[in-house]
Amino acid sequence: MKYELIIIGGGVWGCSAALTAVRAGLQSVLLIEANPGIAQESSAKAGGIVTDLVWHQDDVRWVRRSRQFYEEALALSGDSSILQRYGMLTLADPDRAALLRMRAQNLVEAGIQAEIWDYRHIQDTYPELDRLAPDVTGLWTPEDFHVNPTAYSQAVFQEARRQGLQARLGSRVKVLEPRSNEVIVHCAEERLTAERVLVTAGTWSRKLLNTAGIDIPLRPYRVQLSSLNFADGYHLPMVWDLASDVYLVPDGPHNLLAGDGTRLSEFNPDNYQTTGDDEFLANIADQTVQLMSLAETAGLRSSWAGLCGGTPDRRPLLGQVAEKVFVATGDQGFGVMRGPALGELACQVALGQAQAPQLDPLRQPYSEFPIRPGFTLEDEI
Ligand SMILES: Cc1cc2nc3c(=O)[nH]c(=O)nc-3n(C[C@H](O)[C@H](O)[C@H](O)COP(=O)(O)OP(=O)(O)OC[C@H]3O[C@@H](n4cnc5c(N)ncnc54)[C@H](O)[C@@H]3O)c2cc1C
């Protein structure tokens, strides 16, 4: 049997691509995922922040479209863990207040709700943030939400299955062999044939494509998160403190995710430390306490690390890389908020229904380019 499309990798991007493929009317689509379950790698480790990015018109569109995917998955599955409408408060000291105002203006111009809050307004609304300096400026973006990318991917995967998607879970693709009119996909136990293949293998995508002699400019880097427990609960939205680069994400009434620990060097997706390192744990506790005294009583529940995919220009890598072979990767740390839209676009490109020449995965050769954090407010100007 020859599949019309094989998608390799069942995270947020691959599952969104799979749903797009079956909705496009394809009769034989196969999703192959190395783990026994859906979305257990980077997608399971994310903070889950969905906020509007206004660095580029593409980003504005991708986040808007991804929001629709999340809303639809919530409506389809009824799983309330998929999406929480917390809103986000971004904090800046006087040095960066002008940047924050600029972001607010850019958001409003893009049709997105945004308000500048002064110290008093922040204190009245979220008194738990009791360690802020009186000259702090806040940006309130009420439409920002938190998603559970694993619950989303599972809901989308189930919907795609209902519409005819076939799946191999717990099956790792070892080698890709593109030929002129088809692609041979070698797994441990079997050899499959497809008219075309879409690789959505996250930070493994470069390794997998290397087996077909294809090299893409992707460098995986490590990002850490911790989960703090507040026995008596707390009242906070999502918070991003620009001065320390710490972000906080509510995770139920008692647990709060706290992150900042990006390590800007290349890591091997098959061999990296998947728990938070000592330096990260020491710093994150201190930094959280500098925002709120309540954190002094919080306990550390757990910590983990996952990988993000860095690219030379920090734009995604999406498109054709060989005869019948396509890829979508290079999240640069923002692959939950843009992933559903990019999965959809990648599928449409693989099916010849859309073009994305500006995202050509081979637009630059692989090199040890400097890994830079996703984007910063300065990039918005
Ligand atoms: C700590 C942390 C916090 C983050 N916070 C945010 C956030 O708040 N907001 C945001 O937008 N983004 C965030 N991100 C980034 C986000 O997690 C990723 O961009 C996103 O999950 C990428 O999804 P993906 O589907 O491309 O990759 P993945 O979820 O990694 O999926 C790829 C899949 O491919 C499978 N695979 C790989 N190789 C093979 C093979 N050979 N055969 C079969 N299957 C294979 C893997 O098992 C995996 O399931 C964060 C990342 C980390 C690590």
What does this structure look like?
The protein has 381 residues and is an alpha/beta fold. It folds into two domains: 2-78 and 148-218 and 311-380, FAD/NAD(P)-binding domain (3-Layer(bba) Sandwich), CATH 3.50.50; 85-144 and 220-309, D-Amino Acid Oxidase, Chain A, domain 2. The protein is 28% helix and 27% strand. The chain has nine helices and 21 strands. It has helices spanning 12-23, 42-45, 57-77, 97-109, 119-125, 149-162, 205-210, 278-289, 335-350, and strands at 2-3, 5-8, 29-33, 49-50, 83-84, 88-92, 115-117, 137-141, 145-147, 166-169, 173-178, 183-187, 191-194, 197-199, 219-229, 238-241, 246-251, 255-259, 299-310, 317-322, 325-329. The strands form four sheets. An eight-stranded mixed beta sheet has the order 7-8-6-16-17-18-15-19, with helices on both faces. It has a six-stranded mixed beta sheet with strand order 10-3-2-14-21-20. Strand 17 (246-251) and strand 18 (255-259) form a beta hairpin. Helix 1 (12-23) runs parallel beside helix 6 and helix 3 packs across helix 9 (335-350). The structure holds flavin-adenine dinucleotide. Flavin-adenine dinucleotide binds next to helix 1, strand 3, helix 2, strand 15 and strand 19.
